[in-house]
User: Which sequence fits this backbone?
């Protein structure tokens, strides 16, 4: 079976968001409660706007699932919009003053119109509800194979946590994250982040930050170095940069690599027979600067990805702009938005990363059913543990 793919559709004030996932093996249990809980987390976080009080995102399963399990057909989820008013010109009038930092101006020029409305609606982060639903389905598949993901907020404004996430403490950290208004598993930093968001609102401004995703339990050898487009780190970076308002992606040590000598960057390799049956196949590292990816492939260590979200481009006080009809200077107009959506972005990124990891896993394992995928995984791991094999 080909590797997983997904397609999303939906506008900010359209009737619904839709995601279709192709090539999901049969037999994967669809945990609708988990998927809906992740959609609810995407709506949460300190600094969100009024739209989140209108919507209650939940999936409606349209195809590909029977009796709670996938059947091998395309899986389609619909996430309805309660606030559907795309064709109501009184509530969604034409927009002639593009917002700096948004898709308004380039989209209007691309599609040869002075009305930014269509670009605004499609470019909206409302589309990420469908991406979270598709990524959460991918997580259902990964869980069946012993792979788990975790995402959180590392920084908002200048308030950052240096908390380290490990396979040993991830559940404790998850509890702290879920108790945080900003999804930051550090209570003192959460308080500082909330203060930054409150001040941004007073200033009629917005705040950005850094989010982080971890993937635990993924064995080595997923992804490839044979073609640039098959490198898992490249696909993850592509997926993360496709999230609205993201301006940078780092894997492992990231940009810090530039300021260190090679001996302080690359993770030494050792072998511990006692860990042979684990996801690392016995290969150990004293550090994980590579973020679990070397040469475009997983190396058995946790995958670590960070993404930088810029402050939202819709400000309560507007910014200098131009009326596209008159070419005269005017401030950009306000469209309902958030002061800070970094918390929501952490949920979106976790699921974007999860989908790409699941895609790489399905590419290597194949199988029309979950049972085949499991069997293929065990066969591969046995062969890898048995190296060197006789020719």
Assistant:
């Amino acid at each position: 079976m080909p590797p997983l793919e997904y397609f999303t559709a939906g506008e900010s004030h359209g009737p619904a968001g839709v995601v279709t996932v192709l090539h999901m093996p049969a037999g994967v249990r669809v945990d609708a409660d988990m998927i809906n809980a992740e959609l609810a987390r995407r709506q949460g976080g300190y600094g969100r706007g009024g739209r989140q009080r209108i919507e209650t995102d939940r999936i409606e399963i349209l195809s590909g699932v029977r009796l709670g399990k996938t059947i091998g057909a395309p899986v389609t989820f619909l996430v309805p919009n309660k606030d559907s008013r795309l064709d109501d010109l009184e509530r969604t009038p034409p927009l002639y003053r593009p917002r700096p930092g948004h898709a308004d101006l380039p989209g209007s020029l691309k599609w040869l119109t002075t009305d930014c409305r269509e670009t605004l609606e499609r470019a909206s982060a409302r589309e990420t509800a469908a991406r979270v639903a598709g990524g959460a389905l991918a997580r259902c598949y990964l869980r069946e194979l012993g792979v788990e993901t975790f995402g959180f907020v590392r920084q908002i404004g200048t308030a950052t946590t240096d908390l380290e996430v490990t396979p040993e403490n991830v559940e404790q950290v998850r509890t702290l994250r879920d108790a945080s208004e900003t999804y930051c598993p550090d209570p003192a930093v959460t308080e500082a982040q909330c203060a930054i968001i409150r001040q941004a609102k007073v200033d009629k401004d917005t705040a950005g930050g850094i989010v982080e995703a971890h993937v635990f339990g993924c064995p080595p050898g997923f992804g490839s170095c044979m073609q640039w487009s098959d490198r898992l780190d490249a696909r993850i970076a592509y997926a993360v940069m496709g999230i609205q308002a993201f301006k940078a992606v780092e894997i492992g040590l990231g940009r810090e690599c530039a300021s260190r000598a090679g001996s302080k960057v690359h993770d030494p390799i050792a072998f511990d027979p006692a860990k042979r049956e684990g996801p690392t196949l016995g290969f150990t590292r004293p550090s994980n600067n590579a973020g679990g990816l070397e040469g475009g492939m997983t190396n058995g260590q946790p995958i670590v990805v960070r993404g930088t979200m810029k402050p939202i481009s819709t400000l309560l006080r507007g910014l200098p702009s131009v009326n596209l009809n008159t070419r005269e200077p005017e401030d950009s107009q306000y469209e309902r938005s958030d002061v800070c959506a970094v918390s929501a972005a952490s949920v979106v990124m976790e699921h974007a990363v999860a989908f790409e990891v699941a895609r790489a896993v399905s590419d290597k394992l194949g199988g029309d059913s979950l049972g085949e995928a499991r069997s293929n995984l065990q066969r591969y791991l046995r062969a890898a543990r048995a190296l060197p094999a006789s020719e």
In short: The first strand starts at residue 5 and ends at 9.
